[in-house]
Design brief:
Elements lengths: L1 H18 L5 H8 L6 H10 L17 E8 L12 E4 L2 E8 L7 E21 L2 E21 L20 H25 L1
Family: Belongs to the PDGF/VEGF growth factor family.
Keywords: Growth factor, Mitogen
Protein name: Platelet-derived growth factor subunit B
Length: 196
């Protein structure tokens, strides 16, 4: 039964060779010497033993959206943003973070459940050029569960509406008129004061 199927696959390939572009001989041999009973078997065979593949290369696997261990720096800002006269030890720690790719660019791998974890670190502070050691606690956020969700759209900036394009009266003549009126008032008031 297996031989009959292989012969049928072989005949199909030879028919294809004569009808259209020739198939590579290595592909014909690969199919002839493999047990194929469905399209899925053929697809798997072609994926696993593709013609012309590098013998040292592994098939690529999609990095799925999931929680992975990452390294983050332990910064002074995690403890005290206003003081730069100390160091923290260790300088980095492992955290759990979502990473990986989704099936389309419109989706991104994001955390849907997080957990805050508190870590004890050593604070090394220099006072009078001498180190002092103290225990301190910093917090890190671990991602617990990830999901592919639509990526947030960047905010749309509204264009400022331009002023109407109709004729404008210059501002200076209006100011001059007001200034002239004020001068007249001052002048009349000054004259009255002088006359009295």
């Amino acid at each position: 039964s297996q031989t009959v199927q292989n012969d049928a696959s072989h005949d199909l390939l030879h028919t294809h060779v004569f009808q259209e572009d020739a198939l590579p001989a290595a592909l014909v041999e690969l199919v002839r010497n493999s047990p194929i009973s469905s399209i899925e078997d053929l697809q798997l065979l072609l994926l696993s033993d593709s013609v012309g593949k590098d013998q040292n290369a592994q098939p690529a696997q999609q990095a799925l959206c999931k929680v992975r261990t990452e390294v983050v720096e332990v910064t002074r800002a995690m403890l005290d943003r206003s003081n730069a006269n100390f160091l923290l030890w260790p300088p980095c720690v492992e955290v759990q973070r979502c990473s990986g790719c989704c099936n389309t660019k419109s989706l991104q791998c994001v955390p849907v459940v997080t957990h805050t974890r508190y870590l004890q670190v050593m604070k090394v502070e220099y006072i009078n050029k001498r180190p002092t050691y103290a225990k301190a606690v910093v917090s890190v956020v671990d991602h617990v569960e990830c999901r592919c969700q639509p990526a947030p759209r960047p905010p749309v900036h509204k264009k400022k509406s331009s002023p109407p394009t109709g004729p404008r009266l210059p501002a200076r003549p209006q100011k001059r008129k007001k200034m002239r009126k004020n001068r007249r008032r001052i002048s009349k008031a000054a004259m009255r004061a002088m006359l009295m």
